[in-house]
Amino acid sequence: MDMFSDLTDALIVTIISFLPFKEAARTSVLSRRWHCLWRLTANIEFDEQFFVRDNVPAETQRVQRLDFINFVRHWLNEYTTELVLRRFKLRISKPCEFEADVQKCISFAVSRNVGALELDFSDPTWDENDMENHEPEFGLPMQVYENGTLDLESLTLFACSFNRAWLMNLRLLKHVSFGWIAVRMSTLNDLLRNCTCLESLRLKKCWNLEHLSIFERDLALKTLVVDNCNFYQEWFGIEAPNLRFFKYSGSVGIFDLILTRQLEEAELDFGSESEFDESGGDLLQRLLSSLDCARVLKVCSFMLQVVPTGMEPLRMQSPLNVRHLILNTAMHQDEFWGIAFFLKSCPFLETLTLQMSPPRIFPKFRLFPEARDFEDDVQCCITFAVSREVEALELDFCDVLWDENDMENRDPPAFDLSTNLPTQRDGPRVLEVVLVQKKALKYIKTYL
User: For 270-297, how does the pLDDT look when each residue is reduced to its tens digit (9 = 90+)?
Assistant: First the structure.
């Protein structure tokens, strides 16, 4: 007899409710008793991508989508418990074709006082890097705003419009995510002003934003993500004393950030840029100065190529507090000065991660003219990192070297960690090197 046999069904359902929906479904094979318990989970996720496959004819997708809807209908009819839902997610790309079923799903979630509601009506074929705006076909129903007993703490709306005035009734919100919809800056400011407990704000491919201006007093915001949104003006002003995590993906602009020493992690991705601007280096160095307190910093290939063109070509004038530096790079010769720039700007660095990605190089602004190959650049970067007394070095070559659909096992590149390394006056030091390859994670401890 295992220890689960002594647990009540209610306690097992509580445990299952902490699992992702697909993992909860897998518990049905454990025993006859568990066969139907997973259907009582308080963490429900209806995702059409569990049924609808990419790269199949449209008629096949239509049949698969209908199978998905039939599964949802059967589930709702069989769900008898009155358990309060922790999370309810509905993802379907053509909601207007099944409007009654979508309305029933939302009513089901609201009637069970759902804590986190996620509605994603975006189409997986949409490209978030293009400039086309896709108007939402479905709007958030009135019952979500009007339910006075609803203790909704998390709301995600992708390709789902909402009423700005009625949204302010949801004052208990702590986490809000908008995607693939038009949002005005005044709406975001009203949301921050009314929802004083708001800790997380995420924007993905939103448009109609004049700029980004967040200067609310006593702001509780801890997480801010801006992902490929369209702004009329590339100006970003943020004063967030409690911000812990900041991520920005999009075009280079003017950043006026007033952050406290509580910032822990920052991610910067300017991969959508198509060309250099002469002022780009100065703008990026100014942005880095605003993020100098972050302990974890992730930057893209664009930054590696552009940041040395600023007023300080070798390093930041004031050192960064970064302990873990993540460089998204192709190890191209045009990125080399940028890599050296960041290594010299992070004197407290403990862990360096190189995430290899396909190259996107701007040859017009080449700063490193010598011809170098991939292995030479990686070897030089390793040597430099070790000379800075980095404690952990992570090398991830997956994206650039291997196809994940290829079943062949391949050995990782070989690099020499013993040449041109500094001697240690206090005895041998252990450098932990992580080589990430397909289906394997190899830890090599090298004594220097």
Answer: 988 877 777 789 999 999 999 999 999 9
Interatomic CA distance for residues 46 and 142, integer angstroms: 21
Note whether 175 and 153 are within 8 A (CB): yes
Pure H helices in 226-373 = 280-290, 301-306, 336-345
Q: Comparing C-alpha atoms, which of 239, 233, 224 is closest to residue 252?
A: 233
Beta partners for 231? 209
Order of all β-strands in the sheet with 254-259: 212-214, 235-240, 254-259
Residues 6+ apart with CB under 8 A from 36: 28
DSSP annotation string for 6-33: GS-HHHHHHHHTTS-HHHHHHGGGS-TT
Q: Is 346 exposed, middle or buried (0-12, 13-18, 19+ CB in 10 A)?
A: buried
**Cα–Cα dist 360/270, whole Å:** 11
As a whole number of angstroms, the distance between CA 37 and CA 29 comes to 11
The answer to whether residues 214 and 239 touch, using CB atoms and an 8 Å cutoff, is yes
Bridge-partner residues for 207, per DSSP?
A: 182
Cα 291 to Cα 303: distance, rounded to the nearest angstrom? 14
Per-residue pLDDT of 124-156, as tens digits, reads 888 777 667 788 889 999 989 887 556 899 999
Task: Report d(CA 51, CA 11) in Å as an integer.
Answer: 30
Which regions of the chain are under pLDDT 70? 1-2, 4, 130-131, 148-150, 359, 362-448
CA distances from 230 to 146, 183, 211 (A): 31, 10, 9
What the block records as the tokens of 227 is 């992902």
Helix (H, G, I), strand (E, B) or coil at 150: coil
